[in-house]
């Protein structure tokens, strides 16, 4: 098994001198830990939604405190980006999981990314999870078990002896088997599992056990058994040393039957023993009004005119509403046709960008056809258009049924576009009704329409609108601050694990 040395990333060498005094820098430097992020998306390379944003921004923000590296699968988008790749080693096949290689690449700002290279599993068109039509790959359990097992190999030091992580931070169900394989191998490296979305559970049949090389305990309630299936998400929750989710409110909500997706009992238990915490997402500093990257979006009116032209909307003085979203059940967009008249009557226009479930896409195409020049829909996603829409809009609509944290409402606020959102999950934590946006309580057209009417009233009072915009622009929390609770948590878990003399197989501690 060939292994090559990798040089440390620049961000890992960077001295955080601007943030703290010299003595403290040395102290921070001395205590830097090695943290491995295990994630199926990284916005720089492959992104299907908010997980990609967090996986890109959080390791960079944590670079002040720690040496953070990221592991992702080698999708075509990752490999074709042209960053030079160094092959570190080959990992043998295991049970039904094929052999793979681990490569490493350095991103331009110095972030080190490990890549699981296995063309038969990852070299496919489409999203990280499915084909171009949004259909999940039928072998996703193999694809992401291979991924989790590769993470366990990195954690053990087998891949890169000079960079063995002190802690593994796995994200969402695709990384759920990382803490599990680590536990079954008797590794003592502590792990954190973050739930970005409880509704995606990564389920497969119990009879996949031999293919995935799972021990018998995996099929128990204390393992990853979930109503007669195997749940990758439950594996992450049960085998990690600590669970987090992406807002305080969602951390509370998922312990209830309404939001717990059948896992509320387990999550309630974790919360009651201090094993589940809510750590609110931040947003990347590039969204800050003073950031260099903002200079191409100078004034709202010119961006508004650009969005109108993009979506073929009639230019008028009414409010411009936008939706920038994955088009899935979670986002509550089936309410849009029911509130369309309210928007039109107020002289408003609506521009929608996104892709996802076919039924939602068809519904939005029909809606745009019904209101030419007032409602426009573009199927797809592109970062530049998204920014232009945040910058040019007056209001962002987010009628989510549930929302673990949500990032789009904060991006909109950065540009003085006021979110109109359901009072749920992180939306309730990040929007102050009547101050930095508008909240409504029920997933009903009446409740939503009422908030839209309140917003259009504010739109007609320029002083009030301006005051709300200013407050909204100051509302978002940036990762610079938001990353601190993770630093604290990592140190606590690493210290606890150093003090532990427990049994070799950690899995049994988590029943
Ligand atoms: N079709 C598309 N393709 C690609 N990108 C698209 C897209 N449509 C929108 N986006 C972009 O994806 C991000 C959306 O992130 P959100 O956090 O609002 O929701 P998402 O449900 O994806 O994330 C989940 O994870 C995040 C991160 O923890 C939680 O905030 C959130 O509540 C949870 O549902 C934005 O950057 C947006 O511009």
Quick tags:
EC 2.4.1.21, six-stranded parallel beta sheet, 18% strand, Rossmann fold, 511 residues, Starch_synth_cat_dom, binds adenosine-5'-diphosphate-glucose, 2 domains, nine-stranded mixed beta sheet, alpha/beta, globular, glycosyltransferase, 37% helix
Tell me what the structure shows.
Belongs to the glycosyltransferase 1 family. Bacterial/plant glycogen synthase subfamily. InterPro entries: Glyco_trans_1 (IPR001296), GS/SS (IPR011835), Starch_synth_cat_dom (IPR013534). Synthesizes alpha-1,4-glucan chains using ADP-glucose. The longest helix is centred in the first third of the chain and has 17 residues, at 140-156. The protein has a 9-stranded mixed beta sheet, sandwiched between helices. A 6-stranded parallel beta sheet has the order 15-14-13-16-17-18, sandwiched between helices. The protein folds into 2 domains: 33-249 and 480-498, Glycogen Phosphorylase B (Rossmann fold); 285-476, Glycogen Phosphorylase B (Rossmann fold). The protein is built from 21 helices and 18 strands. Strand 14 (349-356), helix 14 and strand 15 (375-379) form a beta-alpha-beta unit. Helix 7 crosses helix 9, helix 12 (300-311) packs across helix 15 (383-392) and helix 13 (336-345) packs parallel to helix 18 (445-459). It has 511 residues and is of the alpha/beta class. Mean pLDDT is 91; it is low at 1-27 and 501-511. The protein has helices at residues 10-13, 22-30, 50-62, 76-79, 119-122, 140-156, 177-184, 209-212, 232-239, 248-253, 264-272, 300-311, 336-345, 358-370, 383-392, 408-414, 425-430, 445-459, 462-473, 479-482, 484-498; strands spanning 34-38, 67-73, 85-91, 100-106, 112-117, 167-171, 191-195, 203-205, 225-226, 229-231, 242-245, 276-278, 320-327, 349-356, 375-379, 395-398, 418-422, 438-440. It binds adenosine-5'-diphosphate-glucose. Residues 47-51, 53-54, 196-197, 246, 281, 324-326, 354-355, 381, 386, 403-408, 426 line the site of adenosine-5'-diphosphate-glucose.
């Amino acid at each position: 098994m060939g292994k090559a040395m990798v040089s440390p990333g620049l961000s890992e060498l960077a001295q955080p001198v601007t943030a703290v005094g010299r003595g403290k820098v040395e102290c921070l430097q001395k205590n830097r830990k090695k943290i491995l992020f295990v994630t199926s998306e990284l916005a720089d390379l492959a992104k299907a939604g908010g997980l990609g944003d967090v996986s890109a921004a959080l390791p960079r923000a944590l670079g002040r405190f720690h040496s953070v590296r990221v592991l992702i699968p080698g999708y075509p988008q990752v490999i074709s980006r042209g960053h030079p790749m160094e092959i570190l080693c080959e990992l043998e096949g295991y049970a039904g999981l094929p052999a793979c290689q681990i490569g490493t690449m350095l991103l331009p700002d110095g972030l080190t990314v490990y890549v699981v290279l296995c063309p038969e599993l990852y070299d496919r068109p489409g999203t990280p999870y499915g084909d171009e039509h949004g259909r999940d790959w039928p072998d996703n359990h193999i694809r992401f078990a291979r991924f989790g097992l590769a993470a366990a190999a990195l954690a053990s030091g087998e891949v890169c002896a000079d960079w063995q992580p002190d802690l593994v931070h796995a994200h969402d169900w695709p990384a759920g088997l990382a803490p599990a394989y680590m536990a079954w191998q008797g590794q003592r490296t502590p792990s954190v599992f973050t739930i970005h979305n409880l509704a995606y559970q990564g389920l497969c049949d119990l009879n996949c056990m031999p293919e995935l090389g799972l021990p018998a305990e995996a099929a128990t309630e204390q393992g990853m058994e979930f109503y007669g299936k195997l749940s990758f998400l439950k594996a992450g929750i049960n085998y990690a040393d600590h669970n987090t989710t992406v807002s305080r409110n969602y951390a509370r909500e998922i312990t209830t039957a309404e939001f717990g997706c059948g896992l509320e009992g387990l999550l309630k238990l974790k919360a009651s023993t201090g094993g589940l915490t809510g750590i609110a997402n931040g947003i990347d500093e590039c969204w800050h009004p003073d950031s260099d990257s903002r200079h191409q979006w100078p004034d709202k009116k010119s961006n508004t005119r650009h969005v109108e032209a993009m979506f073929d909307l009639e230019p008028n003085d009414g409010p411009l509403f936008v939706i920038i979203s994955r088009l899935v059940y979670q986002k509550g967009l089936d309410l849009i046709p029911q509130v369309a008249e309210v928007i039109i009557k107020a002289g408003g226009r609506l521009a929608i960008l996104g892709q996802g479930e076919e039924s939602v896409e068809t519904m939005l195409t029909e809606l745009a056809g019904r209101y030419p020049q007032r409602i426009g829909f573009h199927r797809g996603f592109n970062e530049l258009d998204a920014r232009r829409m945040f910058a040019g809009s007056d209001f962002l609509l987010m009628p989510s049924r549930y929302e673990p944290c949500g990032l789009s409402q904060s991006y909109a606020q950065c540009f003085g576009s006021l979110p109109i959102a359901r009072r749920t999950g992180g939306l309730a934590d990040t929007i102050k009704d009547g101050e930095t946006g508008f909240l409504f309580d029920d997933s009903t057209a009446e409740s939503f329409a009422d908030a839209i009417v309140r917003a259009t009233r504010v739109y007609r009072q320029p002083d009030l609108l301006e005051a709300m915009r200013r407050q909204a622009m100051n509302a978002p929390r940036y990762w610079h601050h938001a990353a601190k609770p993770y630093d604290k948590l990592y140190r606590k878990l690493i210290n606890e694990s150093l003090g532990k003399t427990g049994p070799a197989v950690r899995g049994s501690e988590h029943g």
